[in-house]
Fold:
Amino acid sequence: MVSNRCYADSISKNIQIRPRPNVNLGRDTVLCKNQTTSFTVIQALYDSIRWVNGSTAATLNDDGSINPLKIKVYVDGCAAEDTVNVNAPKFTLSFTNDFICYNKPISFNNTSSVSFGTVAAFNWNFGDGQSISGVKNPIHTYSIFGPKTVQLFATGNTGCRDTFVKSISMDDSIFFSVNPVPDDVCYGKSVQYTNLSTGGVNTAYVWSLNNINQQTGNTATYTHTFAGANTIKLVATHRCGADSTKFNFTVLPLPRVNLGDDSIIMCPGELKKIGINQIADSIFWSTGDRDKDSIAIDGLTSPIKVEVYNNGCLAKDSIFVSANCDVFIPTAFSPNNDGFNDLFNMINKSIKSYTLKIFNRWGELVFETNDLNSGWDGTYKGAVCPQDNYTYISSGVRFNNEPFYLKGIMTLLR
Structure:
């Protein structure tokens, strides 16, 4: 009705209020892997139906790919709608291990996740008959060699489950082998050792002798100059870690062989004894003598060689023999106590026995000896003799039993 001060007017109309349609899809739903569910409305109750994906059928199947799921229904131009969540948890299961190691603890790195809810529990089958439950990142040691198929089982808090299967190669442990095997060796010997070890991936080897003298590669050469207990260590480094082995052995000392001076002068037929003067496992002389620590030589053979073995270790020595029966005497000496030429005497080379006499310029005997180790010191009756020329006379027998006689002048220097 409308009114003002001039007039009033009115109109009336009947209005029909229609009831709103009712639609109910039920509670939210969780679908596990490979599950589907159906949602149905009674088509006769509605003039038309439209689902969120455009379908107009009374029934819609959903595997979780339509979420949230909505429906609109229409009756006499009035509409109603309902929405339900259809969650389908999708597991992304994985662990990062691409290889495993024989006889070594392996820590599995689990990177699994789920798109809805949480992972409530993990179970593992290690592929060797062993399994474990309730551990996300287990540690396992394989005692049976060979590739393994590992299974990872996951259970979500929604009750849904999934499985991940992975085949993994296994690295073998290091089997150490060295040729020759380090064993007792003689002092000073050089040995090349060759690594024949197997196992591991991208394996690098390092040698050491007594924790020093490191060498890398598949061969190592050591000259053994440390007598006694020794150790060679071989370390193998690979992607599964490191392994090592040790070889203990003894460096044996060489026999000590010393025949004395490198050369001697002898008269042919003269007999002289030389030797090593020690006990040995084996002794070989170039003269044909064997296992004798000393032998007699006659001056007719040169050089004289000897080989001595102890514990398989060899030492050698030799001596040159010069055949000469000449008798030698100096021509001067200087008794000034400087350690050089302080005494005058025959040179001890070929003399078996002798007598030496020294006279001053007036024919007076100032010194006499028959001992090669007792020479004249340049004094007479306790007094120092002056610098001068002196006469010597010597007679005797050589080692070859030939007699000799010498007379000459020598000089005393001050």
